[in-house]
């Protein structure tokens, strides 16, 4: 399907994985290009297929989803691929590990079909799919326990006032449409500013922009 968002589904439970694939293929703008049952296979298939979005289970044999996500995020040729982690449990340690590994979002497996399809589209568009409550706990944990080489270590002093305003709203979980409405801007202008923020803060996606906002003191946990 020309122009469709290309998705890889990684889950070791056959019924669930195949159901996800059917659901995703039901979207006119989405298509499944590969499936994987192990973490190792997820990385290999991602490297071979170059999907736009990977739906990644956490608990899989042959290297778990977190390790596969870390390898995907560290591979330069996969810079355009986004990982949306799926889990049965809303555990802080899973969410924390997923973001630290480079995931662009974290979704529970009991999400409604429409929510999952929307999550895939939003992940491809560069949105962060962490619920505000999850993101708040995660960022606090991240700031309390930093490790060498974290993302978004640049300061915020080189941002323009408008970029700072938009970064604050991103950190509050606002969508592009909501930011545009709040600041009386076009959605296209908001996307341009967010692109500039990603470049200036060396961030991979909106999740890392949120981290930058907290680390830079723009938002206090």
UniProtKB/TrEMBL annotation:
Sequence positions bearing 4-aspartylphosphate: 57
Ranges of residues in domain Response regulatory: 6-124
Lineage top rank: taxon: Bacteria
Ranges of residues in domain HTH luxR-type: 152-217
Entry's transmembrane regions: none
Gene3D superfamilies, per the entry: 3.40.50.2300
SMART domains: HTH_LUXR, REC
An example Gene Ontology molecular-function term: DNA binding
Pfam family, one: Response_reg
Name under which the protein is recorded: Response regulator transcription factor
Biological source species: Streptomyces kasugaensis
């Amino acid at each position: 399907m020309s122009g469709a968002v290309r998705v890889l589904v990684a889950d070791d439970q056959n019924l669930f994985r195949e159901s996800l694939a059917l659901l995703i293929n039901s979207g006119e703008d989405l298509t499944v290009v590969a499936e994987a049952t192990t973490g190792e296979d997820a990385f290999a298939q991602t490297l071979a297929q170059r999907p736009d979005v990977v739906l990644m289970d956490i608990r899989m044999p042959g290297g778990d989803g977190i390790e596969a996500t870390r390898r995907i995020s560290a591979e330069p040729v996969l810079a355009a691929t986004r990982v949306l982690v799926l889990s049965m449990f809303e555990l802080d340690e899973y969410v924390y590990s997923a973001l630290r590994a480079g995931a662009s979002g974290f979704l529970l497996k009991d999400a409604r079909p429409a929510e999952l399809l929307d999550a895939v589209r939003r992940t491809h568009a560069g949105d962060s799919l962490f619920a505000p409550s999850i993101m708040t706990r995660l960022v606090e944990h991240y700031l309390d326990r930093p490790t060498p080489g974290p993302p978004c270590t640049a300061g915020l002093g080189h941002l323009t006032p408008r970029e700072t305003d938009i970064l604050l709203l991103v950190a509050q979980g606002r969508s592009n449409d909501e930011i545009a409405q709040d600041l009386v801007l076009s959605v296209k202008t908001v996307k341009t500013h967010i692109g500039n923020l990603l470049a200036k803060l060396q961030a991979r996606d909106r999740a890392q922009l949120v981290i930058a906002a907290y680390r830079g003191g723009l938002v206090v946990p």
